[in-house]
């Protein structure tokens, strides 16, 4: 007799696993700079104030760098407070409230603590709640790296509005007697709001790095080494010198004038524009001679406005491009909506650039 129960026990029925369907964000086609704000420290430091300590002259500094003065932050002008001030102006220019920001991306190399991120503190200070926030450390290319991140977040639908901040207090890291650095680096903050747009306002980023040239710009010792020197003092050794920024200016200059033409042309090609389409050029404010060399190499037309914020502001690293954009617009050299090539470059050595439509300012 057929035993149905036995048959049922002997037949193995294999379940076919169906993977769960994972939802995706709703992407948008275009992103743009919606508003720009900056913060410039109160204290203006002319060359005359520092020349004696570095055995130099005002003429030498201007000839080598183009700098006449720079801003150094006072004790109450912190990474966070300068960022908040610049961000508030960027939000006002964009016509947005803090609660409409979905993410904060902050670029800096001079936050003197490892955590929490400055971006998270700034978000809270601005009145944001449960907002994504993180820091980027890419030296003087930091703002353009952060801008590339922000544009991708918006296009991918991960965030509708992103606050991008470049901020530095490099005066904290300067050896006042260092002839190569003491006259160059400065403080300040700049911020932009990135959001969706009907037309493209931020071209694809062209970026890269060369870690073989880390010695060109770097902190001269890590903190593990410094702490070991402190312990040696306690055992009777000599007092240690704290870590400082050091720079080989000639190495940076050679790299900049030989390599950055390719970076600029890559950014233009990715965006589908030529130098003849540009209204403005906003390079990192590293050195006026580097800017001049790039202008010649690229063959920029005479009617392209070039940012020269370094003259009165110095080199503010990750803050330099938004601050230079603001100065160029405020001075009337360029206007919102103009097509501009941005190029950040420096410690790493790293670079990043993109073509943008200039934003409105506060």
TrEMBL record:
<dbReference type="GO" id="GO:0033818">
    <property type="term" value="F:beta-ketoacyl-acyl-carrier-protein synthase III activity"/>
</dbReference>
<feature type="active site">
    <location>
        <position position="140"/>
    </location>
</feature>
<feature type="active site">
    <location>
        <position position="284"/>
    </location>
</feature>
<feature type="region of interest" description="ACP-binding">
    <location>
        <begin position="285"/>
        <end position="289"/>
    </location>
</feature>
<comment type="subunit">
    <text>Homodimer.</text>
</comment>
<feature type="domain" description="Beta-ketoacyl-[acyl-carrier-protein] synthase III N-terminal">
    <location>
        <begin position="134"/>
        <end position="211"/>
    </location>
</feature>
<dbReference type="InterPro" id="IPR004655">
    <property type="entry name" value="FabH"/>
</dbReference>
<comment type="pathway">
    <text>Lipid metabolism; fatty acid biosynthesis.</text>
</comment>
<keyword id="KW-0275">Fatty acid biosynthesis</keyword>
<dbReference type="InterPro" id="IPR013751">
    <property type="entry name" value="ACP_syn_III_N"/>
</dbReference>
<protein>
    <recommendedName>
        <fullName>Beta-ketoacyl-[acyl-carrier-protein] synthase III</fullName>
        <ecNumber>2.3.1.180</ecNumber>
    </recommendedName>
</protein>
<feature type="domain" description="Beta-ketoacyl-[acyl-carrier-protein] synthase III C-terminal">
    <location>
        <begin position="268"/>
        <end position="357"/>
    </location>
</feature>
<keyword id="KW-0012">Acyltransferase</keyword>
<dbReference type="GO" id="GO:0005737">
    <property type="term" value="C:cytoplasm"/>
</dbReference>
<dbReference type="Pfam" id="PF08541">
    <property type="entry name" value="ACP_syn_III_C"/>
</dbReference>
<feature type="active site">
    <location>
        <position position="315"/>
    </location>
</feature>
<keyword id="KW-0276">Fatty acid metabolism</keyword>
<keyword id="KW-0808">Transferase</keyword>
<dbReference type="InterPro" id="IPR016039">
    <property type="entry name" value="Thiolase-like"/>
</dbReference>
<dbReference type="GO" id="GO:0004315">
    <property type="term" value="F:3-oxoacyl-[acyl-carrier-protein] synthase activity"/>
</dbReference>
<keyword id="KW-0444">Lipid biosynthesis</keyword>
<comment type="similarity">
    <text>Belongs to the thiolase-like superfamily. FabH family.</text>
</comment>
<dbReference type="GO" id="GO:0044550">
    <property type="term" value="P:secondary metabolite biosynthetic process"/>
</dbReference>
<dbReference type="InterPro" id="IPR013747">
    <property type="entry name" value="ACP_syn_III_C"/>
</dbReference>
<dbReference type="Pfam" id="PF08545">
    <property type="entry name" value="ACP_syn_III"/>
</dbReference>
<comment type="function">
    <text>Catalyzes the condensation reaction of fatty acid synthesis by the addition to an acyl acceptor of two carbons from malonyl-ACP. Catalyzes the first condensation reaction which initiates fatty acid synthesis and may therefore play a role in governing the total rate of fatty acid production. Possesses both acetoacetyl-ACP synthase and acetyl transacylase activities. Its substrate specificity determines the biosynthesis of branched-chain and/or straight-chain of fatty acids.</text>
</comment>
<keyword id="KW-0963">Cytoplasm</keyword>
<keyword id="KW-0511">Multifunctional enzyme</keyword>
<keyword id="KW-0443">Lipid metabolism</keyword>
<dbReference type="GO" id="GO:0006633">
    <property type="term" value="P:fatty acid biosynthetic process"/>
</dbReference>
């Amino acid at each position: 007799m057929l035993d149905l129960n036995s048959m049922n026990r002997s037949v193995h029925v294999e379940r076919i696993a169906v993977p769960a369907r994972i939802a995706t964000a709703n992407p948008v086609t275009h992103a743009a700079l919606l508003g720009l704000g900056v913060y410039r420290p109160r204290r203006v430091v002319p060359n005359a104030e520092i020349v004696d300590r570095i055995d130099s002259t005002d003429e030498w500094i201007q000839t080598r760098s183009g700098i006449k003065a720079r801003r150094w932050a006072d004790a109450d002008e912190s990474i966070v407070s300068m960022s908040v001030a610049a961000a508030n102006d960027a939000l006002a220019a964009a016509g947005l409230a803090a609660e409409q920001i979905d993410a904060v991306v902050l670029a800096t190399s001079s936050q003197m603590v490892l955590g929490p991120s400055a971006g998270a503190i700034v978000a809270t200070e601005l009145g944001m709640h449960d907002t994504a926030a993180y820091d980027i450390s890419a030296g003087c290319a930091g703002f353009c790296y952060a801008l590339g991140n922000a544009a991708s977040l918006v296009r991918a639908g991960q965030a509708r509005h992103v606050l991008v901040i470049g901020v530095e207090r490099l005066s904290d890291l300067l050896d006042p007697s260092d002839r190569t650095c003491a006259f160059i680096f400065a403080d300040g903050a700049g911020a932009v709001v990135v959001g969706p747009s009907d037309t493209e306002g931020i071209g694809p980023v062209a970026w890269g790095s060369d870690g073989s040239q880390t010695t060109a710009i770097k902190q001269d010792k890590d903190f593990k080494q410094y702490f070991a020197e402190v312990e040696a003092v306690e055992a009777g050794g000599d007092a240690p010198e704290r870590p400082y920024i050091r720079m080989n200016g000639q190495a940076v200059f050679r790299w900049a004038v030989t390599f950055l033409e390719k970076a600029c042309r890559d950014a233009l090609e990715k965006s589908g524009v030529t130098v003849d389409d540009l209204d403005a050029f906003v390079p990192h404010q590293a050195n006026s001679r580097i800017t001049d060399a790039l202008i010649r190499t690229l063959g920029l037309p005479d009617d392209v406005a070039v940012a020269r914020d370094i003259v009165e502001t110095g080199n503010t690293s990750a803050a330099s491009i938004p601050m230079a954009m603001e100065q160029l617009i405020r001075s009337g050299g360029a206007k919102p909506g103009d097509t501009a090539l941005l190029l950040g470059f420096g410690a790493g050595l790293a670079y990043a650039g993109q073509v943008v439509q200039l934003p409105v300012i506060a």
